[in-house]
Design goal:
Layout (H helix, E strand, L loop, with lengths): L3 E4 L2 E4 L5 E2 H15 L7 E5 L7 H11 L4 E2 L9 H8 L4 E12 L21 E2 L1 H18 L2 E6 L2 E7 H5 L5 E4 L1 H4 L10 E5 L2 E5 L14 E3 L8 E4 L10 H7 L3 H5 L4 H22 L8 E12 L9 E12 L5 E4 L1 H10 L10 H12 L8
Parallel strand pairs: 4-5, 4-6, 6-15
Antiparallel strand pairs: 1-2, 3-16, 6-7, 8-9, 8-13, 9-12, 10-14, 11-12, 15-16, 16-17
The structure holds zinc ion (ZN).
Zinc ion binds next to loops.
Length: about 375
């Protein structure tokens, strides 16, 4: 099992770099101070996936930053940039935290790991209600297509059987096979058909397809379509309006996502990377952010369901990237390795953390003004 994810947008470390929130938040606070943000006067905004258990995160962020985080996320977990910039305009020292999210599927043994192989093809390693809605139409199309492609070995020939219903769909809204990758061509460029009868067409397999697809049985049911073998034709969004920003982030990588061993985790990676790239460019040109000391940090929250007698889920944070702007207008992007190095350097002890019990007692005593008079 690799500790790295090689997704279409880059190579990222996904194993061995996760920090528990209790460790991450004080390090983040100290990192921001070391970059030049003022101590004890940082404004904190957060965009979490609405599907994530945010109770522990909110309490711990408040404890370490001394302020309640301002919620700046949309329903689909993307950043509400307009609200974010309105909020940025009111402060000089800004910390903006955005996370994609997955919840470990408690039915899958932990030893499987986030990026491990699936135990059964129908069992998802991680789940996320928000992203599941965004992926639903694309995953249905993909599962349907698997039932219409078969790899056949007959009389020494490698053949690909494709049901005509899927070939017809090439002209419609839906999954579109890339026959150039699957089928051998004649010298005139036409696809080599071995046999054609309703409801399927049997093609000569592209010589570049791996032998293992055809070994063992006379007809191999297709268990996986590689992302280079297909794409999605979509004439309109496949989700409700509130989820369309996330869908737009993922759309051009949907083939990679739905065929990944862990589609929800793959979606979390692509979504946060797209968000980071777009929002970093927008911050750089925003008049509201000009001249401000600002840290925009993104990552993936991996939640483990609450167990035993604890009310809170455990959450590990995988740092992804950060954008840093100092008051003089100097900007830089910390790639994942540099960000992890900086977080490791930062102290896990926060001398400025507040005692939430004291604050709550203070609030309660402030509210104990004149109440109902006793009879
Ligand atoms: Zn989620």
């Amino acid at each position: 099992m690799s500790a790295f994810s090689r997704n279409p947008l880059g190579v990222f470390r996904t194993e061995g770099v996760s920090l528990d929130y209790g460790d991450f938040f004080p390090r983040l606070y100290n990192l921001c101070c070391s970059i030049g943000l003022s101590r004890s006067n940082q404004s904190l905004g957060a965009a979490f996936c609405p599907d994530q258990d945010q109770g522990r995160a909110t309490l711990m962020l408040t404890k370490h930053f001394g302020v309640f985080p301002v919620e700046l996320g949309n329903i689909d977990g993307t950043l509400n940039f307009r609200d974010a910039m309105n909020w940025v305009a009111r402060s000089n020292d800004i910390v903006l935290l955005q996370t994609s999210h997955v919840l470990r599927n408690s039915a899958v043994p932990p030893s499987s790991g986030v990026r491990g192989l699936q135990v059964r093809s129908t069992e998802q390693l991680t789940v996320c209600g928000t992203m599941s809605k965004v992926l639903a139409w694309y995953q249905r199309e993909y599962q349907n297509a698997l039932g219409h492609v078969r790899f056949v070995q007959a009389q020494g020939k490698h053949l690909v059987e494709i049901d005509t219903v899927l070939l017809e769909k090439n002209r419609e809204d839906g999954l579109c096979l890339n026959l150039n990758r699957l089928v051998e061509k004649e010298s005139n460029g036409a696809f080599q058909v071995d046999f054609e009868s309703d409801p399927k067409v049997t093609f000569h397999a592209n010589a570049a397809l791996p032998d293992k697809l055809f070994n063992g049985q006379s007809s191999q049911v297709c268990k996986l379509l590689y992302p280079e073998w297909f794409s999605f034709n979509t004439s309109e969004p496949k989700v409700e309006a509130a989820l369309q920003c996330a869908e737009a982030n993922l759309r051009d990588q949907m083939a990679y996502i739905v065929s990944a061993p862990d589609p929800l985790f793959a979606a979390a990676e692509i979504n946060i990377q797209k968000e980071f790239d777009a929002n970093t460019q927008r911050i750089k040109t925003s008049s509201d952010a000009k001249g401000k000391r600002l840290v925009y940090l993104v990552g993936i929250s991996v939640e483990t369901p609450a167990q035993g007698d604890t009310d809170f889920s455990e959450t590990g944070f995988i740092p992804w990237q950060a954008f840093v702007q100092d008051g003089g207008g100097e900007c830089k992007v910390l790639n994942q390795a540099a960000l992890i190095h900086k977080l490791k350097e930062a102290s896990p002890l926060n001398p400025d953390e507040i005692d939430l019990d004291v604050v709550l007692r203070q609030l309660e005593s402030d509210e104990e003004g004149p109440g109902f008079a006793d009879d």
